[in-house]
Specification:
With about 475 residues, this protein is α/β, with parallel strands linked by helices. Helix content is about 35%, strand content about 15%. It has 15 helices and 15 strands. The protein has helices spanning about 15-20, 40-50, 65-80, 90-105, 150-160, 180-190, 195-200, 230-240, 290-300, 300-310, 325-335, 345-355, 370, 390-400, 420-445; strands spanning about 55-60, 85-90, 110, 120-125, 135-140, 165-170, 200-205, 225, 245, 265-270, 315-320, 335-340, 365, 380-385, 410-415. The longest helix is centred in the C-terminal third of the chain and has 24 residues, at about 420-445.
Amino acid sequence: MRPGVEGDNKMDYQEFLREKSNIGAMHGFQPIFMPDFLYDFQKDLVDWSIRKGRSAIFADCGLGKTPMQLVWAENIARKTNGNVLILTPLAVSAQTLNEAKKFGIDISRSRNGSVKKNITITNYEKLDHFDPKDFQGVVCDKSSILKNFNGIRRQAITEFMKKIPYRLLCTATAAPNDYIELGTSSEALGVMGFMDMLGRFFKNNQSNCALKTKYRRFGDHMPQWRFKKHAEIPFWRWISSWGKAMRKPSDLGYDDRDFILPELIERETVIPHSRPLNGKLFVEPAYTLKEQREERRATIKERCESVGEKVNGKQTALIWCHLNDEGDLLEKIIPDSKQVKGSQSDDKKEEIFMAFSSGNLRILITKPKIGAFGMNWQHCSHVSFFPSHSYEQYYQAVRRCWRFGQVNPVVVDIVTTEGEFKVLKNLKRKAKAADKMFTELTYYMRNALEIKQEEYEIKKVGVPTWM
């Protein structure tokens, strides 16, 4: 409520300013715990992130973000004698608990907001049960969730983090589609606000500050953001000042010997679409999103049967779908398979995920938006995927199996239709953009350009005597 307005929720003006403020730049400290189970490149990243105080680690899948964030959390807990909260996607909490036990780090899991030990882990969905005042540090595992600028969850996470002194973001895909998505990570860390970042490094074709999401109804007429003249190099240097990226140990000058991936075999199967779309006399390619969805639904049976033939006889297989009808049909026609879907409880989803992780389930069927983040499934070397326009979903879905620690070649069967050629073309374009982003980050991260930050004290404003 505004100051001066009577009511049950009166707020002092100073309290109003404190609610709106971010506590600004924080410096870290010299690490006090650096165990031998970390690789040398992991020690470097953890050492840097602890000294930084607030940072992001953009390390590829399988490079050990889980042990790194556990060691980071242990350092914060020991230094402050306070609590640290680790936020993860569904089912990753149980996996992280097992990793912590293996490495001898004592943590507890909570779903109701209770804090039993110095390090507590929970799912993003349970964040509303916790109070930020109880924590000195927070870790966002698979922090690419923050890239959805208008997402309610992103806003809740950013609001939760902004009063916590020590913060760490960990993800393999920081901003796979659009460089400006990195601004949401910057804002969560308190480095620079999203809109401030846009104003400093970017401009759009309308010369205003409107976001693309405000113009979705106008289709191709939405504003397109691009770097300001001569701003691209300073931008990457600035990102490198608070985030470190690596795809392999040699990016930090270390040997790749223990992190060489086996072969990735991508096989494309195109299902012919012999029926014309609604309102058409002849079979035509699906150009618009509406037509692509229509064709996808019209070919569910053929595509699912093709996947069933490919996984038949496989010891283990991971099948990614996007529609409920796809998942239900796949589960029906494939023996020894189970589906994880949105209508199930969190406990049921986790039960099926862990059954597949332990080898007690032969074939897992699920959607990328449910299970493509954070799980380690190196025991599986066969993936089937129905493509979509989301490069991040494809990348993460494949990387559940094709990651460091995998010993077998990984086969990825991409099952699509004749009319979805634009989908695959879009995925390839986004793959090139992601590769360029990591190349730029790894090039500049050794010569980070610090942008000056200042922390301002909120002072009480005096009223002039003449008023």
